[in-house]
Write a structure and sequence with these properties.
Residues 27-40 have a biased composition (Basic and acidic residues). Residues 1-47 are annotated as: Disordered. Residues 14-24 have a biased composition (Polar residues). By secondary structure, the protein is of the alpha+beta class. The chain has one domain: Alpha-Beta Plaits (2-Layer Sandwich), CATH 3.30.70. Helix content is 32%, strand content 43%. It has two helices and five strands. Strands 1, 2, 3, 4 and 5 form a five-stranded antiparallel β-sheet that branches. A hairpin with an 8-residue loop joins strand 2 and strand 3 (65-79). It starts with a strand and ends with a strand.
């Protein structure tokens, strides 16, 4: 069996209380990244996140920001071929994002093999 790296991009919305839009975006990206890391298992390799826009500004002085965050998750898969690696990796990523408890996440692309060892 060959080790493969499978990745997939996703988008979610995070809620953060902060004094400025920039701080709220940074905190939202970090919060999503940490949620994915905490839910990860032995196949997890990496996650990158970036807060792309404010989904909803605070309505009042103590209300939180709702921030759109995009990210990419990569998992390691042992498989006989690229097709089965992609299918297995796709399921692992779905399980990981579900376990992370992200708010209304959705995929931005199809799972792809990013390389082999």
């Amino acid at each position: 069996m060959t080790p493969y790296h499978v990745r997939r991009a996703f988008e979610t919305v995070a809620t953060e209380s902060a004094g400025t839009t920039g701080t709220a975006k940074s905190d939202a990206a970090e919060s999503v990244r940490e949620s994915v890391r905490e839910a990860s298992g032995e196949t997890f390799e990496s996650v990158t996140t970036e807060a792309t826009e404010v989904f909803e500004f605070p309505a009042g002085p103590f209300d939180p920001y709702r921030i759109t965050v995009q990210g990419t998750v990569t998992v390691a898969v042992e498989s006989d071929d690229e097709t089965s690696a992609t299918e297995t990796g796709d399921q692992l990523i779905e399980d990981l994002l579900t376990a992370a408890g992200l708010d209304g996440w959705e995929y931005l692309d199809e799972a792809t093999v990013a390389g082999t060892d």
